Amino acid sequence: MNALNSPFDKATQAKLENLVQPKHPGAICVVNYKGGVGKTTITCLLGYYLAKRSPSEKVLLFDIDPQCSLSLALGFDPDEVSKTELTVYNLVTPSKWTKVTKTNFENYAVQVKDRLAPKNLHIVRGSFDVDNLDFEIMKTLVNDEKRYQEQLFLYVKQMLMAYSDYKYVLIDCPPNKMFLTQAMLRGSSYYAAVTIPDAISIYGMPRLLRWVKDIPPTERPKLLGYVLNTLNRAGGGGAGMAHSQAGSDFRLRQSIQPSLDPDEKRIVGDKPCLGAIPRLDVIARFLGERDKYSAMDFSKRTSGQPSVDSCITELRTNLEKRIQQYNAKA
Hints:
By secondary structure, this protein is α/β, with parallel strands linked by helices. 46% of the residues lie in helices and 16% in strands. It has a single domain, classed as P-loop containing nucleotide triphosphate hydrolases (Rossmann fold). The protein has helices at residues 10-20, 39-53, 69-73, 78-83, 88-92, 130-143, 145-161, 179-187, 199-203, 205-213, 238-256, 262-269, 281-288, 308-329; strands spanning 24-31, 58-63, 109-111, 121-124, 166-172, 188-195, 222-231, 273-278. It has an eight-stranded mixed sheet, sandwiched between helices. Helix 2 crosses helix 14.
C-alpha cells in the first residue's frame, strides 16, 4: 500500500509496514542489562568460530556500544574509529531512516583487521558518538514520538536485511535501553544473554527478559539461551567448574522460566545454558595482545579446565541447533 493512498495516519502506516517487514534470519543480539559480564568477549569469540566453521559463509559483527570495545579489540585504532564516517553512528542517524534505497550498506561492513581473523568475518564499526546518537533520536521523537519510533524500528529491520548475504549478524549491545539497543532487539530474530556466576548478574537476568517481553509478540526476538562466562575453577579441576556451573544454572533456570513464551519453554526451558566459558588468561590475551602472536592456541587446557576451543565450539553448536529448532517449529 502506497503511503500517499493509505487510509491510516503516518504513525499507523509506519507500524503496519514494520509488521510486514521480514527479519534477518541470522541476526542475534548479544545482550544483558548489566555491564561487565563479557558480552564483547562472547560476541568476538562466537563470530570467529562461526566464520571459521564455513569459509563460504560470511559473518558480520555490529558494534553498537559507545565504548567501542569490540572494534578496538579487533584491531581498529581509537583515532580511526572516531574519525571515519563509516560507523554505526552514521548508519543509524535519523537522516538515514528514509534513505534505505540510497544507502550503500556494504560500504559500512569492513573486513576485520586482526590478522588471526577468518577472511569471511566483517564488522560494522562502533563510534564513540553513539551516546550522542540517542540524543539525536530523542530530538527527532519530540516531533511525533509514535511515528518516528516506528520509523526507526522499521529502518533497523531493513538495515539488517540489507546484509542478507551474511549468514549471521552478531550485535554487541551496551548494557542499557538506548533507542538503538531497543531497535536492534526488535530488528533481530534472536537474542542471547551473557552473564557471570555472581548473585547480582544472575538475579538481573529476569529484568532483561521482562524488558524483552515488553516488545510486541510480532516483533519480539526469540531467546537462544544464556552464556555463563568467566567460571572459576572451584577446586577439583573440571569437576569443580562443573559444580560451580550447576549451581548457577539452577538459579538462572528458576529465575527466567516464568518469562519464557511457549516456544522458548519447549526449546530453551529445560536447558537454557548455551555454554560455559572458563576464566582463562588466554582469552584476555586474545582480546588485548594478539599483535604478539602468530597464532592463538585455544586447544590447550589449563589447571584441569576445559579448553577455550572446546567451550566455544560447544557454544556455536548449541546456538546453531536452537536456531534450527526454532525454524523447524516455524
